[in-house]
Amino acid sequence: MPVYNFRAVGAISFKIIALAIFSFILFHGIFMPAVSAHRMFIIKGGEGRLQVLYERGVPAGRAVVTLYDRLDNVIVEGPVDPDGFFYFDHSLDVGRAIASDGLGHLAHFDFKMEKKQPGTALAEGEQPRPEAPPVEAEGKQPQILPVTGEQTQPQAAPVEAEQQSQLQVPLTLRVLLGLLFLGIIGITFQRRKNKC
Amino acid sequence: MHIPDGLVPPLISATGFALALGVTVPLFRKDGLLTAKMTRISLVAAVVFVSSLIHIPVGLTTVHFTFAPLAGILLGPVSFVAVFLAVFLQWMLLGHGGITTLGLNTLTMGTAALMSWFLYCRISSLLPAIGKHAAFPAVLAAISGALLKVVLGGTILLFSGFPGETFFLLILFHLPVILGEGAVAGLAVYYLSRHFRARGEAFAGV
Prior knowledge:
Distance between the termini of chain B: 26 Å
Distance between the termini of chain A: 30 Å
Strand order of the largest sheet of chain B: 1-2
CATH architecture of chain B: Orthogonal Bundle
Shape of chain A: elongated
Radius of gyration of chain A: 22 Å
Structural class of chain B: mainly alpha
Structural class of chain A: alpha+beta
Helix content of chain A: 25-40%
Oligomer: heterodimer
CATH topology of the largest domain in chain A: Immunoglobulin-like
């Protein structure tokens, strides 16, 4: 078995990792559009049209959208086009939409909430803003989530409140907050260690 | 990969929490861990935390790095704590994963880290006769760890009612990330081993 050398490796790894983190922050700031998280969400692209996107506007071309009426019955289900658009008859009484890309990403759109807050939807032809808030954050009610069209057991309600607050803050700031949190932990324990 | 809220049944979520806590709590309670290694754990956790922002478009979806195998090689068993911190912050700040799947996500990534550490040690000890070099075992260990992570994630989705196709698609789409994890771990360990060789010491993980 290899011999471990905590003290020696610690000295170099601290410098290397700190350098890597600061480099990442620098490059993240410069090349912001190229680096992004990839959470999936749904936006309304006008009457009878939804678009499924990953964060920062990358279309989720694999997603399958399921529309439910207000009684939670499946009324329409189908795949999006390569640009992430899903078209449906706008005269349908749609209660909510769920999109799943089959790889563990899930997005939720609540039409009931959207009608109460019309300012959140995009107009026909309008391009989504890069920081457009995911509409999945707008739903407030516990949901029954389908898995590729099949009804599953009622699941725990997602943490929309937290997600909504996250999305108001730019990604860079959120990353910096996380690094600051970990930095405080590291410095605190480093000082304690030195005292010992 | 992170499993979001609402995909897995409560029983599987609870099992994930129980298993993740079962590994994390003893590590926290171990004497001297917090004072001796927490600084390093937080640094590696920061790397794991930001790594999820580096994503690769594959087909019509995107996949992202985790660097959990690298964390395992650098930290050993305590990498599980680093992974827990990173996954928690990824959920809180980046919206990756979810509260109900925090345990499962910690478990999949933490297991990958532990597996990478275990394989790195085993392969390192088996190769002295053919010119042992730290980078080669690191690449193999990181690739195996990353593959295990995807397999575990896929298995969880299978048990949650996803079709079998999902399992194979997950592995297929994550192949670039799996290879990338191996390359990054290999380069990092190669650099560290060179550094320590220059100082007359042997690098064999932290």
